[in-house]
């Protein structure tokens, strides 16, 4: 288990470096990450490479048992490169060029910049690829961050036109599939097609407040930009893999913050890496990003390249509160419980200068170790104690499907904006399952469904015919399928289906959507659930479908003209069951529905029961169940156990209950027999 922090030796005087080296070595960590913003020190003049300063740090730490992640520095090109080749700078959707300074001001498609990136990466691979004190490589830093993932320079414009031509072959085919006849938008050639001026990119500014661009064009542009980012990344990964056998990755941001398809972007990477900054003061750390991370490469361990380290100033000018005592340790263990192989804090010591000056860190600017540093020491010791469990696997029988085309399409043309957010809704379902005693995986549409008994597909807005068939087979072969409102409304061209909704799946669900409307604060309607004799009630939310068809109504409206109309259907299809949920439900009612479906699927709850804000994660090692339990309640809390368990850390046995202190945790081994 790799544990440590980001460190920046290029910032330090000799005296400061010596001071920090001692602190790092005494901290007990085993990993540091270095170099992601240091191109001007690695190559101060073109072709003149200087790595002695970095090699010295790697060797000093390595001899003390701390291995290094070496980053390629391409997020921050040096001044000499930019002023020699001004054509490499990024052009935003308003047509404005990004000047030298800051970071991420380069065009990822520019062939000149790609060549310089290749050369510095090759030099890094040559110098560090076989260094025994290195344990991996990070490409660039937070690709597409700071609204830098949708370049509009002439290179990108020409490449986008060519990309469309390669895909559609003829302009007539593009016009037909995109419905350009609407508003008379037919093109005569691919050269006429311009990149959309509106964007879903986080932090970007729109060129004009209202501009009704074609939804197909906008989705294709998202795909093109994602593929361009991946193409640029893979130039570096190919180079590094030619020099090293150490793992190579990059650090994404959030599930979809920067609109890069991480399922595709990690195909040439050895693991999925990402950055995560949750609040740690009386707050539950959302584990949905970890479940997503675990599913990016089919259950492989993931790396957290940057993680919260403390409170104080913040990059954006506001601030973050300090974590509770014990919260750092708890959060690090939680990440490993969910499948992390690496957890690195950002950063080790607070910056006194630059855009991120005064930012949060493990050690403050004065270099004096305090509470957070000593907690990091405790955490490092704890992880060593847990090393025998690091190969424990997951045996979840429930999966939630997440898709980038659907996410992008619902950002491009939102439904019930801003109340309905696709990824948040998938997260809600994950947490309702968790609160009711069930762990789940988060997987892509391309994943293997056969190992799951219960599949949840929230709002599959964009669903190809192939994906429809995949859901059909899953149900036919005995699975429990839950689809929701907005399922299979559009094809992969981001064009609406003209057959009845859910398109291509009405026979599977035994239901047809007859009427739809968004649900606002003044048009909620009550819903009654009939779940084999037990009832639950809820108000509807987000969206409302009225369903027809032959399926059994397990959810009906009880008010207004919708009274007795079906809104949740259940249908036997082949050996399985398909349920269509035509509205959102309150958490308690959704929990009742999920428990009902889990019983139908033969899925058991975790035997460790807990109140809200206490998380239970099941792992399996050598056929034995281990339950990681985390108390996020901001107070001492009690958990009940249905079977005797052994506390792996405290070396004691519990028959009925266990008590967790504030920000506490336990690793409980189920005792059989």
Automatic annotation (TrEMBL):
It catalyses: Hydrolysis of terminal non-reducing beta-D-galactose residues in beta-D-galactosides. It holds the Pfam family Glyco_hydro_42C. CDD domains: A4_beta-galactosidase_middle_domain. GO terms for molecular function: beta-galactosidase activity; metal ion binding. Zn(2+) binds at residues 107, 151, 153, 156. The active site is at 142 (proton donor), 306 (nucleophile). The keyword Hydrolase applies. Substrate binds at residues 103, 141. Residues 614-670 form the Beta-galactosidase C-terminal domain. Its EC number is 3.2.1.23. Residues 7-385 form the Glycoside hydrolase family 42 N-terminal domain. One of its GO terms (biological process) is galactose metabolic process. GO terms for cellular component: beta-galactosidase complex. Keywords: Glycosidase, Hydrolase, Metal-binding, Zinc. SUPFAM superfamilies: (Trans)glycosidases, Class I glutamine amidotransferase-like. Residues 397-603 form the Beta-galactosidase trimerisation domain. Belongs to the glycosyl hydrolase 42 family. This is Beta-galactosidase. It comes from Murimonas intestini.
């Amino acid at each position: 288990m790799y544990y440590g922090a980001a460190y920046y030796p290029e910032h330090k005087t000799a005296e400061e470096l010596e001071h920090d080296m001692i602190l790092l070595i005494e901290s007990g960590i085993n990993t540091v990450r270095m170099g992601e913003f240091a191109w001007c020190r690695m190559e101060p003049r073109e072709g003149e490479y200087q790595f002695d300063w970095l090699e010295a740090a790697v060797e000093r730490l390595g001899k003390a048992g701390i291995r290094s992640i070496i980053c390629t520095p391409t997020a921050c090109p040096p001044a000499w490169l930019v002023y020699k080749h001004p054509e490499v700078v990024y052009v935003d959707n308003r047509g404005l060029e990004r000047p030298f300074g800051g970071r991420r001001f380069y065009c990822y498609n520019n062939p000149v910049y790609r060549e310089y990136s290749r050369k510095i990466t090759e030099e890094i691979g040559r110098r560090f690829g076989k260094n025994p004190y290195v344990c991996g490589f990070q490409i660039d830093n937070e690709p597409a961050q700071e609204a830098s993932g949708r370049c509009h320079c002439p290179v990108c414009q020409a490449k986008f036109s060519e990309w469309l031509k390669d895909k559609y072959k003829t302009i007539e085919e593009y016009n037909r599939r995109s419905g350009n006849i609407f508003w008379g938008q037919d093109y005569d050639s691919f050269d006429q097609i311009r990149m959309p001026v509106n964007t879903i990119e986080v932090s970007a500014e729109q060129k004009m407040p209202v501009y009704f661009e074609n939804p197909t064009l906008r989705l294709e542009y998202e795909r093109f930009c994602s593929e361009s980012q991946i193409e640029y990344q893979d130039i570096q990964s190919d180079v590094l893999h030619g020099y090293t056998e150490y793992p190579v990755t990059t650090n994404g941001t959030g599930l979809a913050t920067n609109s890069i398809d991480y399922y595709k972007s990690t195909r040439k990477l050895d693991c999925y890496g990402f950055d995560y900054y949750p609040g740690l003061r009386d707050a539950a750390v959302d584990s949905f990003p970890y479940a997503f991370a675990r599913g990016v490469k089919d259950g492989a361990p993931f790396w957290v390249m940057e993680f919260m380290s403390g409170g104080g100033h913040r990059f954006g000018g506001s601030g973050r509160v300090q974590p509770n005592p014990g919260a750092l340790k708890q959060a690090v263990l939680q990440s490993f419980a969910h499948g992390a192989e690496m957890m690195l804090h950002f950063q080790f010591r607070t910056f006194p200068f630059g855009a991120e000056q005064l930012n949060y860190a493990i050690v403050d600017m004065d270099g004096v170790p305090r509470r957070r540093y000593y907690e990091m020491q405790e955490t490092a010791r704890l992880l060593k104690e847990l090393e025998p469990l690091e190969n424990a696997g997951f045996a979840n029988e429930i999966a939630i499907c997440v898709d980038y085309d659907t996410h992008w399409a619902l950002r491009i043309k939102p439904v019930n904006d801003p109340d309905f957010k696709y990824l948040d809704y998938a997260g809600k379902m994950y947490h309702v399952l968790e609160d009711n005693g069930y762990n789940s995986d988060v997987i892509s549409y391309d994943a293997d469904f056969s190992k799951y008994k219960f599949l949840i597909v929230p709002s599959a807005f964009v669903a190809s015919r192939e994906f429809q068939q995949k859901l059909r087979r899953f149900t036919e072969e005995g699975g429990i399928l839950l689809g929701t409102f907005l399922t299979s409304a559009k094809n992969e061209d981001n064009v609406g289906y003209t057959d009845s909704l859910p398109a291509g799946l009405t026979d599977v669900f035994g239901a047809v959507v007859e009427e739809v409307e968004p649900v606002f604060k003044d048009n909620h309607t009550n819903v009654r659930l009939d779940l084999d004799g037990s009832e639950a009630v809820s108000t509807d939310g987000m969206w409302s479908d009225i369903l027809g068809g032959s399926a059994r109504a397990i959810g009906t409206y009880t008010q207004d003209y919708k009274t007795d109309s079906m809104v949740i259907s259940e249908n036997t299809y082949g050996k399985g069951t398909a349920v269509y949920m035509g509205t959102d439900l309150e958490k308690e009612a959704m929990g009742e529905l999920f428990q009902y479906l889990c019983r139908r699927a033969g899925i058991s709850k975790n035997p460790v029961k807990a109140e809200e804000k206490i998380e239970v994660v099941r792992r399996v090692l050598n056929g034995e169940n281990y339950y990681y339990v985390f108390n996020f309640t901001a107070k001492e809390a009690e958990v009940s156990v249905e079977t005797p368990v052994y506390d792996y850390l405290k070396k004691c046995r519990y028959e009925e209950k266990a008590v967790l202190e504030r920000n506490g945790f336990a690793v409980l081994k189920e005792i059989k027999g």
